[in-house]
Amino acid sequence: MHSLANSAALAAREAEPGLALLRQREPVDRTEGLLTHRSKFRVMVACMLWGATSAIGIGVPGLSRADGGGLSYPFSCSWGSLTGDFAGRDELPQSQEPPDTWYRTDAQGHYQNGGWGPRADALPAPDVPQNAGCDSAIWKRERILAVAMRYIYSPDNPLGLQYRHHHIPGWQPPTSTYAGVSGENPDTDAPQGLAAWDPGPGLDCSNFTAWVYNYGLGIKFGGDVHRQADGTAGPMGTRISADGPFEPGDVVYLHPKGNASLASHVVIYIDDAHIIDSRVSAQNRVGVQVRDRTGWYRTAVLGAWRPIG
């Protein structure tokens, strides 16, 4: 078994900035004379809280309390199979629009596309690696969680995203993108002011879910929260009722407190107690974070889509 120091070194080589990987090898099992073994991975992610830092990990079938007080998630699939192509996918163009045009402004000094920047290009679907150690359906679900985790916001994660009205994470405007128009994805239960248009990288709730599926599995749907919820944004998959049951990776839609028929927010389901989403601030956490599935997150569910077949 790897020591903690060796695990930390492995994390630096294999995980994204801001992530620490702790690898555990399970004991060997013998079933009907056949020798089998399985590796489990726990991914501990440093998450920025409002004025404090805690460690949290994500996975299936559920989060458990780690020794340090944080939460850990044991992935069934090998971590290398889930993340091994990240470096290559990071080199793919995020948009068909030439980067040298991204930051052009009009006569009023406003960025293109109403302040949203370039639209996302469709990325190719990855192959499920032969060394995944799990079936393809589980790999795809855990792949979505692994991709979403890359963008958890903290000061020491260069990939971390705050809540911004952008289409792609690669667009990083140096000044406010506010063009005097309202956002197409209003999160009425978390007043945004102009924070959603601040400089720097970020994604709003539904552009985050759209990007995670595009990057992770090559499933491309649009970033409008209403069209996603209606199933008209692209290949949204199977509709799931508000009562579930939900699977890891499902995109779950919530309604405003004052209107139970209109989607205003979307999250990625982890387990019955946790989701990952992008908000200006919620539960004293900023931007993309793992949050507790309590209160409004549980009571305001409209339904979900399962893009993974």
UniProtKB/TrEMBL annotation:
Domain of life: Bacteria
Keyword Hydrolase: yes
Signal peptide residue numbers: none
Alphabetized UniProt keyword annotations: Hydrolase, Protease, Thiol protease
This protein's name: NlpC/P60 domain-containing protein
SUPFAM superfamilies: Cysteine proteinases
Annotated Pfam families: NLPC_P60
NlpC/P60 domain span: 174-308
GO biological process: proteolysis
MF-aspect GO terms: cysteine-type peptidase activity
Family: Belongs to the peptidase C40 family.
